[in-house]
Design brief:
Layout (H helix, E strand, L loop, with lengths): L2 H21 L4 H12 L3 E8 L2 E9 L14 E2 L3 H15 L44 H5 L31 H14 L4 H10 L22 E2 L5 E2 L14 E2 L1 H13 L5 H7 L4 E2 L23 E2 L4 E5 L2 E10 L2 E8 L4 E7 L8 H9 L6 H5 L8
Antiparallel strand pairs: 1-2, 1-12, 3-6, 4-5, 7-8, 8-9, 9-10, 10-11, 11-12
Helix pairs in contact: 1-9, 3-6
Length: 385
Amino acid sequence: MHAYVKRCALFACSLLVACAGNRAGSTLDDYVTQGMARTRAQGLTIAIIDEGKVTRVGTWGKRNDRGEPLTPDTVMYGASLTKAVFAYTVIQLVEEGKLELDTSIAAYLPKPLPDYTGEARKYAAWEGLAGDERWRKLTPRILLTHSAGFANFGFLEPDGKLKFHFDPGTRYAYSGDGMILLQFVIERGLGLDLGREMQTRVFDRFGMKNTSMTWRPDFGANLADGWKEDGSVEPHDERSKTRAAGSMDTTITDFARFAAAYVRGDGLAPASRRELTRAQLPIQTVSQFPSLQPPAPPAQRHPNLAAGLGVVTFTGPQGPGFQKGGHNDSTGNTWVCLEKRKRCVVILSNDVRAESLFPGIVNIVLGDTGMPWRWEYGASSWATP
């Protein structure tokens, strides 16, 4: 079966099973246990937040092929959930006057972006933008809303060079390199170490003791490897560089603490918290991936879907919500929240096959949210952060 059709069929089945389970009084535990058996997913963790408080953390399955169990403190790959934590960090810098969301990145850099070569390559090859002055239109807001006009990563281009595909700020196209460019501005323009800023501003602040933007040797004592679609095992990657697009390691306990603090607005002025999840830019594509899709006809678009800062916003039967996913070949994560009553579900899985269970899990816990599952997972092409 084609990957797109197979994924949509699995999600539809997941939602139907969840709804039937609710009518029959089935528990979340039953649904997860049965779903993991059906999909052969090996590991899954869930956190539930209500009224801005963590009310449950659950783990199922194992963390490696030796059969050692997942626990609430098992270190797992956060993948692109990193981007939401990054945006939360950036909005603090904005509050402090160190950045302005709508100021050109040119104002923060000592020299033109394309002139950075050599050492800057650990971020991306900015010299590919030489001769195209549209880089001066880039702002922190544009980069955080995935509207830079870049591909997900420059190395995915046929010639391996980053380039503009449309005018910055005009439409949504997911770009990890856009996030990494904002990291470059913070580190080279402001002279800050992003890993250190995220450690003090987020991980230390919320007691996230087993979370880091780079590998720590103590993680090895309780670490999750991953399972791919074909059932093969992928060892946990020991990431040595801070990457705003997705280098965070975390645990379900730790990320639940962040998610609860985020919906409460801890550490931010109310206006800054609202700005993170405000609908900043309408999203007009049928699905999130592949990126750089043209806008879909109005009838095929997901209504009320928009980019926030580092998250995606939507409106459903229960009012406004937001979400962020994270994925690679052996990782499936999602975070779905409803603003009303500050309710969230966080799911971290070290087996990509568990993703088909996500709609059902969210439906059981939160009810019908209006979460745009087909947009989030509808395409057959993915890129690893």
